[in-house]
Amino acid sequence: MKIGMYTTVGDRCGIAAYTQALVNALRLLPETEVEIVPITEGKQSRGHYLAIAERLNADDIDVVHVQHEHSFWGGILPGHSAYWEFRYLITKPIVLTAHTTYTAEEMLRYRTERRLLKKLAKWVLLRNHAWVDSVQVAPFVTAVTIVHTEEAKQQLVGRGADPKFIHVLPAGVPEVVAATTGGEAFRRRFGLEGYRLITIFGYTAPNKGYELTLKLLPSLPEDVKLVIAGGPRNAAMEPYFAQLVRAIESSGERHRVIVTGYLPDEEVAEAMAASTVVLAPHTEATGSYSVTIPLAYGKAVLASDLACFREIVGRIACLELFRSGDVEDCRRHLHRLLNDESRRATLERLAKEYAERYSWPRIAQQTRCIYEEAIQVYAPVYRRPYTLVGKRGPS
Predict the structure, then answer these.
(1) Could you tell me the pTM of the whole model?
(2) Between 287 and 135, where is the model more confident?
(3) What pLDDT shows up at residue 66?
(4) Strand, helix or coil at 320?
(5) What's the CATH code, domain 2-172+360-377?
(6) Residue boundaries of the structural domains of the chain
(7) Does domain 184-357 have CATH number 3.40.50.2000?
């Protein structure tokens, strides 16, 4: 079997890292070959997608696997996305991993919009049902789709997807790079000797919960510092990063916050080794590399009780959870973890257990089974999953 993997590539993308780990594990399986075809992010010309389709539709490709995130195609606004320009050109069996399954309303941040004219424009857009379907339904019902959580599957089924073609497959936990100095190099670099570190890992984004953490920081012991281990992923995220820096400067706790910027793998290892507790106080998430990395390193993690994190705990109780958005509840749990070495040790042990059970080699085996199913689904004698439940696509 040969897979055409259509994905972002490079060091500064969590989905690219996710895909590379999957590809590495797939290539270790018998009779499995993978060709990576890079996604050029943003809306591209028709000629660009014709060239991509020519490669993915080649005779030697058995199945195409698309890593889907709306920003890869130019965003969700009408006229901005080129996803369908690409999708209609693909004739091979197609598997899609849905990294975002939010509703159109959620992606527009309609409920929190305070600018009257902007809110009105969003309201009008949300009345365009064809556009709404093209964003939150159609990409996922025109492929055999992988999601990371049961909640995401139920969201898609609730919008009309056939549950037979939606597979729940959690993100694999990557192998780790050794921290050769046990975190001491990281501490020296940022002047953190003698401090306990609480760390939020990953690219800075509005859903990561930094603002909540800044609110509780004054109530933590003076020997505790906050490390924001990351920076903006691309130019589009720089305005939020600048906003976050301003929030830190005005918080009165600037002396207790370290923002590292992008860290290569070796420095991530040192940052994890130096951390006492890793935080994932996300306000929105359908899964997060910000959690799988600390689990891979066997760290005690405190996360908001979003569905994707509750599902991790449902598999193995390797996360401590607090009520999402609740500063007081987060403070209570964080104080407990900082002061209870036994509880941290239990979470660390369970994190390592989770990392072993959901390693990439195991996830790759399950993914290959989904490819085999997709090839059968797209065979002429089998129904194609091209339409909503109850409507037959062409045979």
Answers:
(1) 0.77
(2) 135
(3) 97
(4) strand
(5) 3.40.50.2000
(6) 2-172+360-377, 184-357
(7) yes
